[in-house]
């Protein structure tokens, strides 16, 4: 059996070494970043913030977290320094520096101020020197293995340790830096790293695929930047390692890793999306690149997986990856509302793949998906001031989910920087005598053609405004066709089967094409198989998904769980003082049961019908939420009281300062106690945890549908000592709401709850009548915490 497996490995390498067919001469090319200038009222301020605040924030965090000094320490060790210092951070932190450098290069290419360009260029050159000094003579570079794991152990844990992933981001950064600045200093570092990988995989002694995809698409970008096809051939080799047995450095042969790492089947046999969503998006991007270079065997897989993702697995915002458990895909139609994960990096990965599919097939549907993902799932990942970020993008928040200045695993912030820094390359493309207009944004573009250039200028306030004008000046000696991605309002332009409307210009002819997207608010419903969206509606206007925030919709229930938007409710458009288009719906608000005690009269399973009172429901674009302080938010709203969120076992709705996405807020009051033999560490039942918050002040609250009399409270704390990072809290205090004030209950000890492990901590207190009760919790220093069960009563 071993002999047969080794023979299969040899065949893989032979396939990987085969030269791909030359790309067709008439392929679609993106217009370069430096040939596109983006401005206007919408994108102009946002990209200015990215070039300034976002670059500054990411650079600062890379500095203060030790990511940069890791390179200095590694360089010192390579030079023979016996005590260079300890490695800081996570093992894949090098990749954050490389992504930052790529985004930095894009800022240099698009920064309008010459003095600042020169300053940024000089500073980036200095960082390139620091990175180059940490590279071994053979091209290998990884500060974690240099300083901590041991260079003698390199590439022995590729499944988990991200060495090729980090080198992939270095390779991509070097290629992009060269394309945008013309400099070869970072390119040289990248080429040496790529040559190291060629030597590693080309020898036939190592066929372990990258644990986290990135090197594949980076090598293709390097091949395009250098004109060296050997790097694209190496990318093909890496792709063909998947779904087959792996030969390790020591000669042992191990089985494929499975679908989490997209290693369950050979690439050409893929038919469904699976596993980690970011890795998948990067992988599919590389397959699209390879198909464009002539590897037609990947076309059926790409088409099938694209249909699977966009028809069965995508959020209304255009994001992907529903589950925190694997940061990725689960089953078809698993698109949750209450536990949506939707990582920012996964949305970026989908955009990279969508753009490559457009370059491969020239169909507008790919850029339509790109647009929806950018304006909702990706833009949401960055605060309006450019300094804070979302890693997880929920569809519903009951408060406490706020953007952070950084993360321990900080893949998203520098990814946002580089993506928006290079946004211009996605707006336009050219093929033969055709110029594609793919994104509607105020911008200018210069498109080179044989015999001259075509100058384009868009004037629009899109996506806030639907008026669009594209002025064309064909300065070339050949006729040119303008292909406009079809949108509502293009009544006078015929839309072809590929989704583009075409307008023709003779040599040296100019003109302007105008139309107006009506931007009418639209109700959107999910497929009935998307269970958590049944009975609920989302509202879109143009490409923008709208959301309701508690900060705009005051009421007794701040998580908006009492709001209904009936099917016939009118929705009108208005604007706030900043010019942001708002939607105002004639909604309804639940005001309690008809007899004040309906829940108890029917035993909890049924309750008397709610009183619904008219209310104005304000919504604003989803990507803008959580920019005005902590706020609750909802995208999917019920159309009738029947689909309001269920109350927990105690008849209350539950809120918390923060809930880890893979946990559930309703676990606190679901009436389920742990197995006594497992105690606080029972992971077989639902739990509410504050992970990854540590050492912080947190809270959990019950809001009742009518005032309740209470004199008893019990808490069973979650503590997974020996397994995870949750411990019983340092302290907890029970408070009740008295009018608008919070007061501690009166009990010996001042309202303090017990914090013992493996027991139900119970206190009795002087009876209070209240509409709301909360636990204020102080976590232990350096530790997180959580709750398995919390009950209140008499």
Q: How would you describe what is shown here?
A:
The chain is an alpha+beta fold. It has four domains: 2-255, no CATH class; 428-516, Sandwich (Maltose phosphorylase, domain 3), CATH 2.60.420; 522-643, no CATH class; 652-793, Sandwich (Jelly Rolls). Helices cover 30% and strands 23% of the residues. The chain is globular. Residues 1-25 and 593-600 have low confidence and may be disordered.
Key phrases:
alpha+beta; Maltose phosphorylase, domain 3; 10-stranded antiparallel β-sheet; 7-stranded antiparallel β-sheet
Rg of Cα set: 28 Å
Strand segment tally: 29
The structure class reads alpha+beta
Provide the low-confidence segments as ranges.
1-25, 593-600
Number of alpha- plus pi-helical segments:
17
Question: What's a quick, concise take on this entry?
Answer:
This protein has 794 residues and is of the alpha+beta class. Helix content is 30%, strand content 23%.
């Amino acid at each position: 059996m071993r002999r047969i497996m080794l023979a299969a490995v040899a065949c893989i390498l032979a396939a990987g070494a085969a030269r791909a067919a030359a790309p067709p001469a008439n392929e679609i090319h993106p217009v370069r970043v430096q040939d596109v200038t983006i401005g206007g009222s919408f994108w102009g301020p946002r990209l200015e913030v990215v070039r300034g605040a976002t670059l500054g924030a990411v650079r600062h965090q890379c500095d203060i977290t030790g990511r940069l000094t890791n390179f200095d320490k590694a360089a010192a060790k390579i030079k023979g320094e016996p005590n260079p210092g300890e490695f800081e951070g996570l093992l894949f932190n090098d990749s954050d520096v490389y992504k930052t450098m790529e985004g930095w290069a894009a800022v240099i290419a698009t920064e309008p101020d010459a003095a600042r360009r020169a300053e940024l260029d000089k500073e980036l050159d200095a960082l390139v020197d620091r990175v180059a000094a940490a590279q071994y003579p053979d091209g290998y570079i990884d500060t974690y293995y240099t300083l901590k794991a041991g260079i003698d152990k390199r590439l022995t844990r590729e499944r988990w340790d991200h060495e090729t992933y980090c080198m992939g981001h270095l390779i991509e950064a070097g290629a992009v830096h060269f394309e945008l600045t013309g400099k070869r200093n970072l390119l040289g570092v990248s080429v040496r790293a790529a040559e190291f990988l060629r030597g590693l995989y080309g020898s036939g002694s190592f066929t372990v695929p990258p644990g986290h995809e990135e090197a594949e698409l980076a090598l293709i970008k390097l091949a395009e930047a250098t004109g060296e096809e050997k790097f694209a051939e190496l990318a093909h080799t890496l792709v063909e390692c998947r779904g087959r047995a792996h030969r390790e450095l020591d000669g042992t042969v191990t089985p494929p890793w499975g679908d989490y790492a997209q290693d369950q089947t050979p690439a050409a046999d893929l038919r469904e999306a699976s596993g980690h969503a970011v890795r998948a998006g990067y992988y599919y991007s590389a397959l699209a690149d390879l198909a464009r270079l002539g590897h037609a065997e990947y076309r059926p897989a790409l088409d099938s997986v694209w249909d699977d993702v966009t028809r069965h697995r995508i959020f209304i915002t255009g994001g992907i990856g529903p589950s925190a458990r694997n940061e990725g895909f689960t089953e078809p139609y698993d698109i949750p509302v209450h536990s949506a994960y939707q990582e920012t990096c996964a949305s970026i990965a989908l955009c990279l793949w969508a753009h490559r599919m457009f370059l491969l097939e020239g169909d507008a549907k790919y850029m339509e998906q790109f647009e929806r993902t950018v304006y909702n799932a990706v833009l949401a990942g960055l605060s309006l001031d450019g300094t804070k970020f979302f890693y997880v993008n929920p569809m519903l928040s009951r408060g406490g989910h706020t953007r952070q200045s950084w993360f321990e695993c900080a893949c998203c912030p520098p990814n946002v920087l580089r993506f928006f820094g290079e946004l211009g390359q996605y707006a336009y493309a050219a093929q033969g005598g055709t110029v594609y207009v793919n994104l509607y944004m105020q911008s200018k573009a210069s498109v080179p053609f044989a015999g001259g250039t075509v100058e384009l200028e868009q004037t629009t306030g899109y996506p806030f405004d639907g008026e669009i004008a594209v002025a064309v000046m064909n300065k070339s000696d050949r006729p040119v066709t303008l292909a406009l991605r079809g949108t509502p309002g293009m009544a006078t332009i015929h839309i072809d089967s590929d989704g583009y409307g075409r307008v023709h210009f003779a040599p040296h002819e100019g003109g302007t094409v105008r139309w107006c997207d009506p931007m009418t608010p639209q109700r959107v419903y999910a497929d009935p198989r998307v269970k958590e969206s049944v009975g609920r509606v989302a509202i879109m206007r143009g490409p923008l998904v709208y959301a309701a925030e508690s900060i705009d919709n005051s009421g007794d229930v701040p998580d908006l769980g009492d709001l209904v938007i009936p099917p016939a409710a009118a929705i009108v458009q208005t604007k706030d003082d900043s010019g942001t288009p708002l939607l105002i719906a004639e909604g309804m608000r639940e005001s309690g049961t008809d007899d004040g005690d309906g829940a108890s009269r029917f035993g909890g399973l049924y309750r008397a019908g709610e009183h619904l009172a008219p209310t104005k429901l304000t919504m604003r674009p989803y990507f803008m939420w959580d920019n005005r302080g902590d706020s609750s938010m909802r995208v999917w709203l019920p159309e009738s009281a029947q689909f309001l969120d269920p109350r927990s076992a105690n008849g209350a709705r539950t809120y918390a300062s923060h809930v880890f996405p893979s946990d559930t807020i309703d676990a606190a009051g679901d009436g389920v106690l742990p197995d006594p033999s497992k105690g606080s560490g029972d992971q077989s039942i639902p739990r509410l945890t504050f992970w990854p918050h540590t050492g912080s002040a947190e809270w959990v609250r019950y809001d009742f549908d009518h005032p309740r009399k209470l004199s008893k409270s019990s808490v069973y704390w979650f503590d997974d000592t020996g397994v995870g990072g949750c411990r019983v809290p340092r302290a907890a205090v029970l408070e009740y709401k008295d009018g608008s004030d919070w007061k501690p209950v009166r009990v010996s000890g001042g309202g303090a709850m017990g914090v013992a492990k493996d027991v139900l901590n119970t206190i009795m207190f002087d009876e209070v009548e209240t509409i709301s009760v909360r636990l204020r919790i102080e976590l232990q220093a350096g530790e997180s915490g959580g709750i398995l069960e919390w009950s209140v009563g008499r």
